Fold this protein.
Amino acid sequence: MTHLNPVELIIRKRDGGMLTAEEIAGLIKAYTNGEIPDYQMSAFLMAAFLRGLDPEETSALTDAMLYSGEVLDLSDIPGIKVDKHSTGGVGDKVSLILAPIVAACGVPVPMISGRGLGHTGGTLDKLESIPGFRVDVSIDEYQRLLREHGAALIGQTAEIAPADRKLYALRDVTGTIEFIPFIAASIMSKKLAEGIDALVLDVKCGRGAFMKTEPDARKLAETLVDIGERFGKKTVAWVTRMDVPLGRAIGNWPEVEESIRCLQGENVPDLMDVTTTLAGEMLCLGGAAATPDEGWQRAQQAIDSGEAFEKFVEIVEAQHGDARVVRQPSLLHNRTKTIEITAPDGFRGYVADLDAHFLGRTAVMLGAGRLRKEDPVNPAAGIVLNKSVGDYVEPGELLATLYTDRTDLHEQFSSAVRKAYSLAEVPAPQKPVLIGRYTSDGWVNPF
């Protein structure tokens, strides 16, 4: 650790001063190499959390985390490589539908995803609910999948952004998770390391998201796009609503089943509005469409023709998953027990609201998620909402179907799900799921 005094940097940031790119790079490198102890890095994280990081410091932090490991070179793979990232939400299975749509239209999709933690699900857990599906592949295999099949859906490898893994674990136990520069640097260091040429971001906003308010979500979107553009990557961000679950399924295999139906043409309006909008952006950035609207049309054609579903089957087979269950999901319907939740006496009216955060936490208790990274997950566990926002409910009608092996908690689960529903005498106006689009040219609000 040459010419680096971490105490001096901590004090300067504590007092509101700025750090140079070289100082931030040295600090991150020394911590990643084990030359700075956790207690000093914790002090720096808290000082930055309280005093803030400006755009130059945030970009420097991203750069330091990015180059703490290997930055992949995909230049020998034809085409413009475009990925998508979501900040996470309840029922967010967009990636499962989006990647095969975009790949079927000829744009390569290098997608390195994460696992679920807390009330939000993870793409890797969903994919692994397909028997045999492998997400832990080498970089060479990742590149082969992308070259031969047009998409690779894998987990973060040891070579990619090791500083991010180490810092995230420390942020988790020091109360510095919800800080936009740290969130942005974490996301973008991993995405830039994938070897992408362009990126589309889905920044979730609301009760079921990490960004609870629209101003916070917009600020995160602006920060992410600014970093992407600083690194020479064309970047587009959408802020989307996450007050109610996206779609009707929550949980790993239940969400895969819903994704399969959507790829086969079923229209789940909120889910497919987000998916096809992001697909249009990706196809435009990837050169397969002149505009996002034209990309939206191409995405819809890929679904209608069956190409998107067949591409999903191809991806599953290429990553050693059992494609039989994709073509016939009923083969896995006996993997767990079923609890049906009905509307009690006096429960009558239109569903005006569904608490996404509450339902996400309930799904975790069913076994569908984890509160700690080491917690086991039941791939079949989850919730399917038989009644959603706008539906009319009468006593005795089926509200939701739960999948869990924890049947001893039947009454507790039933009570929790019923509490998530809010009813009204008349249909409540539904807020659009798409809130705003941000690029380096500024904001466009669709409604």
Residues 69 and 159 are 5 Å apart (CA to CA). Residues 214-230 form the longest helix (17 residues).
